[in-house]
Amino acid sequence: EMLRVESKGRSAAEAQLTRLEETERVVKEQRELILKLQVENTELKTKIAEERKSIAKQMELLEGARQELSATFRALSAEALKSNNQSFLTLAKSIFENFLKEASQDLTQRQKSIDRLVEPIKSSLERVDDRIKELEKARTEAYVSLLEQLKNVGETQKQLHLETANLVKALRMPAVRGRWGEIQLKRVVEIAGMVQYCDFIEQQSARVGDSRLRPDMIIQLPNNRVIIVDAKAPLQAYLESLETDDEQRKQEKLKEHAKQIRTHITMLSTKNYWQQFDRAPEFTVLFLPGEAFFSAALEHDPTLIEFGVDKNIVIATPTTLIALLRAVAYGWKQEQLASNARIISDLGKTLYERIRILAGHFSELRKNLERSVLAYNKTVRTLENRVLVTARKFKDLGSATGADIGVQEEIDELPRALKSPELGVND
Prior knowledge:
It is flat and about 165 Å long. The protein starts with a helix and ends in a 31-residue tail after the last helix. The longest helix is centred in the N-terminal third of the chain and has 94 residues, at 78-171. 74% of the residues lie in helices and 7% in strands. It contains 9 helices and 7 strands; from the N terminus they run H-H-H-E-E-E-E-E-H-H-H-E-H-H-E-H. The strands form 2 sheets. The chain has a 5-stranded mixed sheet with strand order 1-4-5-6-7. A two-stranded antiparallel ribbon has the order 2-3. It has 3 domains: 2-74 and 85-164; 173-316, no CATH class; 335-423. By secondary structure, the protein is α/β, with parallel strands linked by helices.
């Protein structure tokens, strides 16, 4: 349970770290965009400054031209130009004002064009600034959440270490270790959906001579077949490897653990469980209550699986045993479906036979109704032709009073016959 909590904590921390990295990547892209926009803004400002310098220079040239023009006119003969001086100055002033107006309009138009170019950049920069603020806020929150997750992971790690130490201490006792293995085995069976007293039987024994074989679990298969499971694997050396910090001693203990598993496989194969239980396959499942026990043994003895198969022993961890039990549960479901199909088939046959008999009764009832109709019509004809003819004479002779005797009609329709060939009715 603590390992699952730690795994969830680590997964959450990794998810937070991934989101943080994604946030930093987005911030980096936004910063690069800002730099690019700043460069474009600087270039536009430079162009605007150059345009303004160009216009100012043109204004200076115009002013110089005006001054030169005025000086030129003053240098001319006052008498010759006296009559035209005022009109010329007025014309020059008008021309100059028109030129100045056009230049001012051109400058205004250029300023508007520059503003139109700068406005999207300004808006983009504002949006980028807002986005950066949001990302910075999210990054800060992510860092805070990540720190909190790391803190929780650290606390969980400490608690897990303490619980592991307590578990190792408790598992040193063979009785506790055996009970823990049985609990793990039962939990695996429950997870796989093989409920007790339905698809599996615990602690069933078989007598061989003077000795008694007692497997930890017998998995009941369809067609009365069984699979034997043993959960008495030795774990002492592995537990001792967890208590030492010396790497060399740890490796020695893990090698000893692999050797103990191999020895237990040999011992278990000599029991020949499949010979003592009817219809059992020629192998026994050796259950290791944790994935770490098997991986550690396999790391130091890679041939352990092949050795077990040669000895008719299949090593199973919780994961592989769950898969095996799920397959067995599926087999039970298929067996139940097949059984239900057989029952439905039998019910269908019975129902069909009963419907056939009922159809015979309907046919007999139809025949009886036809005979009743014929008898009724015969009685009506006798009533009309013989009885009523005489009775009406009393009315004619005045000896009878009241309403006339009604006319009795014959029945023309007969009951419909059953014509479906499935009913098997023969008239």
